[in-house]
Every structure is written in C-alpha cells, then in structure tokens.
Amino acid sequence: MEKLSVSDVLQRIQNTTTFHAEVEETGCVLKIDEYLPVVCTAIHAGERLREDLIKHCLLTKEQRYFEEDPFTDEMISSQPITLAGLDSRFEYDLNRAMSLSTYYRSAWEQKVWDKPLPPKQRMNSQAKHAAFYQIYSALIQKLESMFGLVIVFDMHSYNYKRIEKNTPVFNVGTSQVDGERWGKTVTRFLQELRKIELPNIQVTAEENSVFEGRGYLIAHTNANFDRTLVLPTEVKKVFMEEESGTPYPLVLEALQSGLKEAFSQTSAYFQRIYNRKPKVSKTDMLSSVIDPAVLSVDRALYRLAHKVETLKYVTPTNIPSEKKRFFANAARYQPNYRYRQLPINANEFKFQLYRLPIENIADPDMRQLYGDMIDKLSEKVDLLTSVGQENFLYNSLAYHGRPDEVAVANAKFLMYAKDISSAPSEMYSASEAAEQMKVAATNWGMKCKITLTSSLAARAMVSSVPPTLFVNKGATFTHEEVQRLIQHELGVHMATTYNAKQQALKIFQLGLPGSTFTQEGMAIMAEYKAGYMSLDRLKDLSTRVLAVDSMLKEHNFYNTYAYLVEELGIQKDAAFMTTTRVYRGGGFTKDYLYLTGFLSMLRAEEDSNLNNLLIGKCSIKYLDLISEMVERDWLTPPKYRFDDKGGTLEPTLEYLINSLR
C-alpha cells in the first residue's frame, strides 16, 4: 500500500489510475482495483487518535473502541472500490457535518475531553474531514461521468446489548433515500441481506428499525450528486464480543462472504433496472484484476507444493516381482511392496505452509479457498509420509474418505446385473495401445510423452510433472478400453493438466480440495459422453468399491483377493491388480471415488454446466467460485476437453445407470 498526498490521489482519480493508498493529509485508505459504478465505505472503521489529543481525552482506549465500527473495513474488502477511515470518530466524525464533526465535550453521555478543544485542534481535525470529502466527491464525480448512475454502500456497526428490544442483524437507514426513485433497490438489498447465512445466528434485515440513516455521508452525497444512491447499513455486532472487542472469526468470515454476494447482486440489479443495462451480472460489479495478495500466496504455495504428487509415491516399485511371489503361494504370502523415497521434510513443509499470509487476501471466498488448500496439503503430507506404515490407512480415510452404504449398494447392484452381450473386440498390446494414444494426443495438440512402464497398479496413469501418460506394459487392451483411456486419461487428466498451465493462478495445477473425487468422476463421465461406457466397465468400477470395502473390513490382502475371485468372479490377474490398488501404501481408499464421482457428476450436470471444472485440477465444491473467476477474467475457459457425443447408450445399460442412487 502506498502513501499519497490528496493532490496525488485526485490526479490519479482524474486519470482513472488504479491504486491502493493511505492519504497523508487525512486518515483514510482508498483502494481502487477497477473503476466500476459501486463504492463501499467504512468511515468509522479506524481508532487512531492524534498524540496531542490523547493527553486531553478522558476515555480509555477500550472505551473509545467500544463506540467505533471495527472490522467494517474487512467486511467491504472484496469490493472494487473501498474507502475506509483510519482515525477515531472521537477525533472527527465523518458522518457529521464538518462544524459538528469534533465533539465539543461529551458523546454517548460520556465526557470526552478534560476541557473544550482549542480552535487550532478543531481546525486540524476538520481539515482531515474536509480532505476526506474532497476525495470522496472527486471519486463520485468521476464515476458518475463514466457510468451515469452509482451506488454506495455505507457500512457501520452498532452495539445492541444496551438496546432493550430485539434488533435486526442488518439495518438499512432510508430516511434520506428517495423511496419513490430508489425503493426497488432498497427492497432488493434487504432481500440479499436476508439470504446471508451466519453460524448459529438467525439473520434478519429491516429498514429503519434501529437507525434511520441520518448521517452526513448520505446527506453530502444527496446535496452534491443527483445520480448516486447511498445505502447506510448498520451491522449488529454479532461478529464480536461487544464489551471486550474480541472478534468471532467464523462469523466474520461468513459475514464478509455473504456481504460480497449481497453487494454485487444489488449493484448489478441497480445497473439493470436504473441504468438500463440488462446484461449486467454480479461478476461485472467485481474487479477483473486479480488481487496481488492472491498472486503472491498462489506462487508461494506452488513453489512449496508442486512436487508433492500422491500416486508417484503411493505406487509400489516392485509389483511384478511381488505378483510372482504371491501366485507362487497365494494363501500364505502377503506382498511386501517397496515405495519411492519422499524428498520432503514434513515438519518444515507444514511450517512453511501455515506461514503463508492468506490473511492479506481481500476476497473472503478466495481466502477460504487458499485456507482449505493449506489444510488439505497438510493432510496430503501426512498421507505421503506414512506410506507403508500402520497409520497410512487412517490418513487415507482422512484424505479420501470411505464408501458409504449407498456406494456399496450401488456396486453390488451392478455386479449382479446380467451381462450384456456384445461383439468380439479387437485386442491390442500395450505398445499398440500407446501408439493410438499418441495419435489422439497429437490430434488434440497435446505435446506429452506416452511411456510404457511395468511399475503401475493401474492400466494407465497421467503424471503432471512433466506431462506424461504412463501405460502398463504388461497389459492388453480391447479397442473399447483404448478409447476409454483416451477420453479418461487424455481427455480429462491430461487436458486439465494443460488447461491448468494456461491459468494465471497456479493452484489449479496442484489440485483443489476434493479434486480427486471430481477429476475421477469427470474422467468416467468422459468415457460415458464419448459413447464408450459398458457394463463391464461399470463392473470394474464396482469391483474397486467393493475391494475398498473389503480392505477396510478384512485388513488382509489374500482375503480381499479371494473375495474378488471367488464371490465376484474376477479373473485372477485382474483381482490381484485391484487388490494391490486398494492395499498399496497400507490401505488406499481412493478407488471407491470413481463410481461415486461419476454418479455425482451425472446428477450435477442436470442442474449446472460443468465445463469450467476442466480449467484445471478442480473440485465441484468450488464450481460457483471457479465460474465467478472465469467470468471476472481471472481464469481462462478450458481449451482442451474430452469428446462429448451425448452419451447415447444401449437401453439396458442406460436403465442400470439411471437406477443407481
């Protein structure tokens, strides 16, 4: 943040220059990320008092703080233009006319000064007051000239424990608002405020219930500008302990996120209705410039975590030799898998992880996203550092979860479905399959490696660093399997790898929390949409769910293998590889996510466009935020994607899928 003079600020506003600065001649901070017709003010957020005034003040710092509006600057921080006060209202009150802005002797029935302030002291304070309104007026004038109509959200907070009646969480004061002209916007804002959800608090929003909006900021605006609507808004201090000033972080975070939505929705409505811009959406009222704090945290997080790739360190390096030993004495031999060494100091990694300054991120939803990322990466390191140890299973359950009763029931339903006859398929060796995959990658413009390997528990797997598709050299493939792998591995996993590299935010190369569920669900849906889904494939996914369920119950490699062979009728080689998949590392629960994720994506597609989930390693949990970032031009729409041919299936198979819960 810069320090600028009033003249510098006025010049920058005149030139429509974006900046974030503390204004030297006054006690305010002005942030302009982008020039848009919406301003948020928090004129009582500060508590500074000049040294030459403190010695004459009879109130303690705590007594003064009680009457301030703390955290209101944080409530508006997501908005493109914010103007917040740094100085105490006891020095000069920006919501009173200049001549009344310096309290003469008392306030709220408390004596403030040991003696009346001398004229020089009052003049110094009033000069700050005048400078603030000089800047505010220049800003509104510029915005009106650019956009026609402007909306201002004037945020305050209020103490409620001294009020005997029940009071609303939000109070919008409209005594100085032209109801005939702006009434629809007031109604819409109240509706948006009532939608906000706060933990353990019933949210209410009323008009003129506690305060009527008789402050000077709206009066000054009405006197000087005819095309700007000011909405004076009071927030009940439910976000802090009123007497001590101790904040409640969970409430504050929810409040910031909810107000971001309320401001942007109301601003867009205002432009549509009054400025006759019918296509304006809420994202048009948010900055298209990525917060520098987001970029800083994003790059630091990527530098720290980009080499932490789960499958690389969970996949055994000696599968072929252990497979031979197992089949030589299946009932007695428990495979003794070896794994790659993890080049990470877990404690140091976590120390660096939790030092990342996410508190500097202004947008509450982005701050929450990066906070979630940090927590999930911490869990991921716990998982990787416990590979081959007893606590790996516990960490796997924490990271990936476990199949619930519905997932197990779906899997059993599919396993017992009667096979659907089909024509014999052409078979390919691993090298022949790899060649077809190379052709598909070339056609999609993907310059990736496709490499045969014997160290895979799967038939194929994408590694992001560098972009490589590994193909199991010991496997053979039907024509349909090759086509499924092309859509699954290249059309989703490789596509999202390349799409992520096009994004300004590197977090999408790492994988958002819940990305495994979404990625694997999307990858199976890609097979379905391209027309290559089969009952055999669904049974393969079901086998994985039941294998995970068996592993959690049996904790015995042979027992799970025998269950797959003897009860589910799986061929021995396939049963061994599936059992290996779920026992690797010490008990890896990831495999149940394929079928569960697929069904979840199918259901989600009925209500939402899922295309933005392909911009990188995304999670459906954050789809709304991802789509918002795409609309704000923070992210680039996906360039690479699987072939969507509508997913027309054989009727019996379609019936089976639709019958799943």
A few lines on this structure:
With 661 residues, the chain is of the alpha/beta class.
Major sheet description: 9 strands, mixed
Rounded Rg: 31 Å
What general form does the structure show? elongated
Strand content: 5-15%
What's the tally of helices? 25
Q: Unreliable runs, pLDDT <50, ≥5 residues?
A: none
Could you give the order of strands across the largest sheet? 1-2-3-5-4-8-11-9-10
The overall pLDDT, averaged over residues, is: 92
Helix content: 40-55%
Instruction: Give the end-to-end Cα distance, rounded to a whole number of Å.
Output: 53 Å
User: Helix- and strand-based class?
Assistant: alpha/beta
Q: Would you count the extended β strands for me?
A: 16
Structure description:
With 661 residues, the chain is of the alpha/beta class. Helix content is 47%, strand content 10%. The strands form four sheets. It has a nine-stranded mixed beta sheet with strand order 1-2-3-5-4-8-11-9-10, sandwiched between helices. A three-stranded mixed beta sheet has the order 13-15-14, covered by helices on one side. A two-stranded antiparallel ribbon has the order 6-7. Strand 9 (170-172), helix 6 (179-194) and strand 10 (205-207) form a beta-alpha-beta unit.
